[in-house]
Amino acid sequence: MQVLEAVLFDMDGLLVDSERLWYESEAEVMADLGAPWGPEDQESLVGGSIARTVAYMLARTGPVADPEDVGRRLLAGMAERLRANVPMMPGAKELLDEVREAGVPSALVSSTHRALMEHALDGIGRDRLTVTVAGDEVAHTKPHPEPYLTAARILDVDPRRCVALEDSPSGVDSATAAGCHVVAVPSVVAIPEAPGRTVVSSLREVDLPRLRSLVG
Fold first, then answer.
1. How many CB atoms are closer than 10 A to CB 184?
2. What's the rounded Cα separation, in Å, for the pair 31 and 13?
3. Which of 52-65 are b and which e, b meaning 16 or more Cβ less than 10 Å from the residue's Cβ?
4. Angle 50-61/19-33 helices, nearest 10 degrees?
5. Cβ-contact 128, 97 below 8 angstroms
6. What is d(CA 84, CA 123) in angstroms, rounded to the nearest whole number?
7. Res 22: pLDDT
8. Which of 7, 37, 77, 161 can pair with 30 through a Cys bridge, CB separation 3.0 to 4.6 Å?
9. How many CA atoms lie within 13 A of 185 on its CB side?
10. How far apart are CA 81 and CA 70, in angstroms?
11. If the chain, 216 residues long, is cut into consecutive pieces of 10 residues, what is the mean pLDDT of each piece?
12. For position 1, what pLDDT does the model report?
């Protein structure tokens, strides 16, 4: 019987109720660039990298601003919001604490840059996680498997004996390609059931025995 070696958590939309904060920051920047922003735009980008978001925005507006400047403005808007409050998703702290108290290694695996992740960790609690991997610390972000393979390597675990929890299609693809069992908790975009994937509506439906059962 296989043993659960680690639990790997996404951040935005999974642990932290931040997709609405991203939407506010994106809409604010787009208003400054002179273009509208709607829910369908966010759906196209959920779970992606800053670079992808900036490229999408400037494809909409034309070359009206420097991409690096747009990226800095997005990150600054999010940092300001996270400094004010880090809203946790229902069941997130309880699951993190259950995993930690059981002595199971864990990782935060996010497409978000380290500087912004640090603000979120103030609310999540650094002691709740064994390691963290940020989007600007890998060569390829989600949906590439590198973020999850990097976390598994740092933890010295087999990704095939890990469960990854994700809220976005790109995150699910990343974890699946790395060989992890996946629990999907869709936030902005629907995620269908699939082999090797469990779909739930909330982290409140997930506990450590259930995660262990997915590997065993």
1. 26
2. 24
3. bbbbebbeebeeeb
4. 30
5. yes
6. 10
7. 87
8. 37
9. 23
10. 17
11. 93 92 92 91 82 91 90 91 92 98 98 92 96 97 97 98 97 98 94 95 98 94
12. 67
Asked whether the beta carbons of 7 and 99 are under 8 A apart, the reply is yes
Q: Note the pLDDT of residue 49.
A: 82
Query: Given this model, what pLDDT does residue 188 score?
Result: 85
Residue 156 CA to residue 44 CA, distance in Å, equals: 34
pTM over 0.85: yes
- The single residue listed with the structure tokens 């639990």 is 7
Q: Residue 86's closest CA among 53, 112, 54?
A: 112
Q: Say if CB 160 and CB 5 are below 8 A apart.
A: no
* Cβ neighbour number for residue 192 with a 10 Å cutoff: 10
Render the burial of 100-135: b for 16+ CB within 10 Å, e for the rest. Answer: beeebbbbbbbbbbeebbebbbebbeeebbbbbbbb
